[in-house]
Specification:
The complex is a heterodimer of chains A (298) and B (769). Helix content of chain A is 36%, strand content 24%. Chain A is of the alpha+beta class and 298 residues long. Chain B has 18 helices and 30 strands. In chain B, the strands form seven sheets. Chain B has a seven-stranded mixed beta sheet. In chain B, α9 packs across α10.
């Protein structure tokens, strides 16, 4: 379990990193926390000719509130920010409680100490928590290359199994999480075989209520049920205009399990078991999100 | 008393094989079969040999006369009518590969990286053959054969009987009949295997560092293979990060080839197994399928058991029939079962070799009898604990002969035991009566799915043939103890020191222990079958007793007092009643090895003695485990609420170490019951060969284990000890099944298999609807 030979670069600035990526093109891989790439290289499943190590690019590590002039700005997270920093951030806990709630489910503290937010999102593992959470939160991803910069919404970023909208030479540099609307509540739940394992199924839910407790917006996303994070549009529709009830939760859970997902079978869970978990977790997560929304009038 | 080895282990000062770094050392990677079953038409290593940094590449053809199948390690017991087809593993596959991961070629290079790069250069041409994977299909006519010189995939067939089962069946009130599947997994020691070898041309001595559980047999075997004197080969099993059985599987290909390459190349050579290799190339335990029935009287008295089972032995069977015979024997448990008919068929498959892993087949037997008792209890309307109580052996029945042969070829005879109080202690510890009468009905009424389980088991431990030890008092007063068994974390350094210290009246910290180095001690067999404390411990005791006699003899002359009046205490010998006087042990050691003057005729120098201990047969430990679980029927997740162990391993030498063994065993058992499974597809490919998908329970998945010791000393050894290394792992599967089934009583689920998983539980619940 030793990697095949590769060239190794340690740029100190973003511009240097982008120049190296431009120079080496598709043969190069950016190295962030290395928690997925390095094992893949050790198994020789990945054999990049060059690694561009981003760990000395300090300018990509930050968490800050972006003022947008209307009082509630997005939370901007640099792509190289360690997952542990996000987990411990008071700003994140306040501005993006769904993200804060999901963080401890990402592997183990040792891995979160090293793993980065951008690395996880750009890797786009369908079992990863961050892509599903960002899709639920309608985050925007800032991508840069040696020749320019663009902003991609989460809904257009994840393209399939380990595939994203990023082009060769392009680097994810920042994640912007928009603020929640008033009377919004969120919840994250997942079931894994052991704590820290990739989830058998995970769900992220955001619901927004009107003053009478009726749902005006809902975004429910899943992980580990498809090629990437899955947005449950049918379940969302069943909630529109409805107030919380046991029947409503069951209807949404049923819609999610039967219409929104087409989960795979693998050695840990059959498709049927995953559907069952989608239903159960959807019900439980929505109940929690509704309850939190009601407790969040401002 | 704390473990003396821990400071060294925890601060990184212990030598492991991979720490051996010598000038000019070369590194090895093995090319391993990608096919489970294929005919090898050619292995072309020429390109690999030309790669810079590569020193040598060997295929089977390059080994010449050195290529030969490994030894049959454990000849089967003399069971009447036994069929046994020995087919032992080969150093490198020739003509045919028989499991994924079987070594095909060996690359020796300046670094492990270069060696792995060169694996890509080797061109293997192979014709894939249909893989033999399923146990039942393996015996069907027309199935491809793993070993083509045999008429079928049958590796062994054995029948053992006691009493008259047919008569028991005719008299029975009920016959409880079920099919059971019990699968086990990888041993998953924290340290993988490793071998380093150095041929010293000037001294003409070969030193081999090996993660083996049995350094002395390895030394003897290597000497024979390499044409050296045994004294020219030194095998060191330094600190080893867990053995659990597979590291005893002596003469693995790597173990045979690395020393050979070191001699041939004249440079030190090292191979360290990586985790992926470990899943394919290190032996495992795996599945059995049992068709079993229990003949039972109306009051729950067991009249007899009949069991017919299939055992997966993998691609080769170098370890004989130890695992299926353990299953066969351990099924009888702590119960008085008057008639028994047990028949097994061991089957070759295109999977990694099966040899003992902690428990070594005992789990399978315990699962069958315990589950049969559960189903009988339900059918007869008897409480689960009560049906066990009614069948336990009574203290006056020991020694109890079960009339069949155990793995060590001795009759399966239990030396001593007191089983009913152990059951009572477990029921009390888990508060069984109150739980069943009050708590469970209350929680069930609230919609909670809680269950309780209680199972009993015995463990045959401490088998022969023998171990030895040498005890020496040095002039410093410190005591040196050398024994041949290797150590893999059990606490031998502490326990052996305790045994010797007690006999010699010194502080255990003054006893310096060496294990697993053939230069220090070269008679013995190894660490397996929960025998370290029992057999090697008894040898340490015997050697210490002999040294004590020498000490007393010399001291009685020096102090002019009768030996009976002398006291050994605090590293001194003094006359009773005169604790201030006397002589230090070190001073006596000096006197025992004079540099001038005359000694008495017949005197041996020094205060040193070597002694051996070989029990006639093993001693039988026993225990009862109980647990409370809660199951979420919507998600099929299981939470262990409480786990209680009552254990009797005879005289407890070190309670903390015994508890540690039990905790580790329970963790292994929980892994086996709910997390770990080697998933092979129908092509014989292992689908989860990494710790990402092969799920070991972690600290957060293992509950707090509440332990109670009981002590029924063994009459078979001077220490009174019975083994404890495997106990924790043995009853866990049966316990898990019983408790989970109880929690899900309203679903009608019946659990007849291990391992479970939430996914499998969900399927079973769906089926039960």
């Amino acid at each position: 379990m030793k990697p095949a030979p590769f060239d190794y670069f340690t740029p100190a600035t973003l511009d240097e990193a982008l120049a190296l990526l431009a120079e080496h093109g598709a043969d190069a891989k950016p190295l962030a926390g290395g928690q997925s790439l390095i094992p893949a290289m050790n198994f020789r499943l990945a054999r990049p000719a060059a690694l561009v190590d981003l760990n000395r690019v300090g300018e990509l590590s930050y968490i800050r509130s972006e003022r947008d002039g209307r009082g509630g700005g997005a939370t901007a997270i640099g792509a190289m920010t360690r997952q542990r920093a996000v987990e411990r951030s008071e700003l994140v806990a306040r501005a993006a409680p769904l993200l804060a709630e999901a963080m401890p489910s990402i592997a183990h503290p040792q891995i979160r100490n090293r793993g980065t937010v951008g690395g996880s999102i750009a890797h786009a593992d369908p079992s990863a928590e961050l892509p599903a959470v960002m899709l639920a939160l309608e985050a925007r991803f800032r991508a840069r290359s040696a020749t320019g910069e663009r902003s991609v919404p989460a809904s257009e970023f994840f393209k399939g199994l380990l595939e994203t909208a990023l082009q060769p030479g392009e680097l994810l540099v920042e994640i912007a999480v928009p603020p929640l609307l008033p009377r919004s509540g969120t919840a994250f739940l997942e079931l894994a075989r052991r704590h820290g394992d990739y989830a058998l199924v995970g769900v992220a839910a955001v619901v927004t209520l009107d003053a009478r407790g009726r749902c005006t917006a809902a975004r429910i996303t899943f992980l580990s049920v498809g090629d990437g994070p899955v947005l449950a549009t049918e379940a969302g529709k069943t909630l529109a205009g409805q107030a919380l009830s046991e029947e409503l939760l069951r209807a949404a859970a049923d819609a999610a399990a039967t219409r929104d997902v087409d989960p795979p079978s693998d050695i840990h869970a059959s498709a049927a078991y995953r559907r069952q978990l989608v239903a159960v977790l959807t019900r439980r997560a929505l109940a929690r999100a509704f309850e939190r929304a009601e407790g969040n009038p401002s | 008393m704390r473990r003396s080895e821990d400071a060294r282990l925890l601060t990184g000062r212990a030598l492991f094989v991979d720490d051996v770094r010598l000038d000019g050392m070369l590194h090895v990677a093995f090319l391993r079969s990608q096919h489970a079953h294929a005919r090898l038409t050619s292995v072309d290593a020429s390109a690999a040999r030309g790669r810079p940094g590569v020193v040598a590449v060997y295929t089977a053809a390059d080994l010449g006369d050195y290529w030969r199948p490994g030894p049959l390690l454990v000849p089967p017991p003399p069971i009447a009518g036994l069929v046994f087809n020995p087919c032992t593993q080969v150093p490198l596959a020739k003509d045919k590969v028989r499991h994924v991961g079987e070594a095909v070629a060996m690359v020796v290079a300046e670094s492990r990286y270069l060696a792995e790069d060169a694996l890509d250069d080797i061109v293997v041409e192979a014709e894939p053959l249909p893989a033999v994977v399923d146990l039942e299909a393996a015996l069907a006519p027309g199935t491809p054969r793993v070993h083509e010189h045999l008429p079928s995939n049958l590796a062994a067939h054995a029948v053992q009987r006691k009493g008259d089962y047919a008569r028991a069946k005719a008299r029975a009130h009920a016959i409880i009949k079920r099919r059971f599947r019990y699968d086990r997994g990888a041993s998953a020691a924290i340290e993988n295997r490793a071998v380093a070898a150095h041929w010293d041309q000037r001294a003409e001595e070969l030193t081999v560092w090996d993660t083996t559980q049995a350094p002395i047999p390895i030394r003897n075997g290597l000497a024979q293979l390499l044409g050296l004197l045994e004294s020219q080969v030194r095998v060191v099993a330094p600190y080893v990060g867990g053995g659990f059985g597979p590291k005893i599987m002596m003469f693995y290909p790597e173990e045979v080839l690395v020393p050979w390459a070191a001699m041939r190349l004249g440079r030190p050579v090292k191979w360290t197994e990586d985790r992926q290799e470990n899943f394919f190339a290190t032996t495992q335990e795996r599945g059995q399928i049992h068709d079993a029935e229990l003949a039972v009287a109306k009051d729950g008295t067991v009249l007899g058991v009949k069991d017919v089972f299939l055992h997966d032995t993998g691609a080769y069977d170098p370890y004989g029939l130890t695992v299926p015979i353990n299953s066969q024997c351990t099924l009888l448990g702590p119960y008085d079962i008057p008639s028994y008919e047990s028949e097994f068929t061991a089957v070759f498959t295109n999977k990694t070799i099966v040899t003992p892993v902690r428990g070594a087949g005992r789990q399978h037997g315990v699962f069958v009898i315990e589950r049969l008792l559960d189903f009988a209890a339900r059918e007869l309307g008897i409480d689960r604990a009560e049906i066990r109580r009614r069948n336990l052996l009574r203290p006056d029945q020991f020694p109890f002969n079960n009339d069949i042969l155990f793995q060590d070829s001795a009759p399966l005879t239990y030396d001593s035991g007191d089983y009913e109080p152990a059951l009572d202690a477990a029921l009390k510890a888990i508060d069984y009566g109150r739980f069943v009468r009050e708590e469970q009905p209350r929680l069930r009424a609230a919609g909670r799915h809680v269950g309780i389980g209680v199972v009993c088991y015995v463990e045959g431990t401490g088998i022969g043939p023998y171990e030895g030890a040498r005890v020496t008092v040095e002039p410093s007063g410190r005591v040196r103890l050398a024994t041949g068994v290797g150590t893999q974390g059990q606490g031998h350094f502490t326990v052996f020191a305790q045994i010797v210290a007690e006999v010699l009246g010194v502080d255990a910290g003054e006893v310096h222990v060496v294990t697993g180095d053939t230069r220090e001690f070269h008679w013995g067999t190894g660490t397996f079958a929960s025998r370290g404390a029992v057999v090697a411990g008894s040898a340490c005791h015997a050697a210490a007793v002999a040294v004590r006699a020498k000490v007393l003899d010399l001291a009685s002359r020096e102090l002019e007092a009768a030996a009976a009046d002398l006291v050994l205490d605090g590293g001194r010998v003094h006359v009773r009643g005169d604790p201030g006087g006397g002589l230090a042990l070190g001073a006596l050691a000096l006197k025992a090895n004079p540099l001038r003057g005359a000694v008495r005729p017949g005197t041996e120098p020094g205060l040193e003695a070597t002694a051996y201990f070989g029990p006639d047969r093993g001693s039988t430990a026993n225990g009862v485990h109980a647990m409370v679980v809660e199951v979420d029927p919507e998600t099929a997740q299981v939470e262990i609420k409480r786990y209680v162990v009552v254990h009797d391993c005879g005289r407890v030498i070190n309670p903390m170490i015994v508890e540690g063994q039990i905790h580790g065993g329970v963790a292994h058992g929980i892994g086996n019951a709910f997390y770990e499974q080697l998933v092979y597809d129908e092509e014989g490919q292992l689908l989860n060969a990494s710790f990402m998908d092969y799920l070991l329970p972690t600290a957060t998945d293992v509950p707090n284990v509440e332990t109670t010791h009981r002590e029924t000393p063994s009459p078979l050894n001077p220490v009174g000890a019975k083994g404890v290394g495997e106990a924790g792992a043995i009853p866990t599967g049966a316990l898990f099944a019983q408790a989970v089934e109880d929690a899900l009583a309203d679903t009608g689920v019946e659990i007849r298999e291990i391992p479970l998983s939430p996914n499998r539980l969900f399927e079973l619940m769906q089926e039960a609807r």
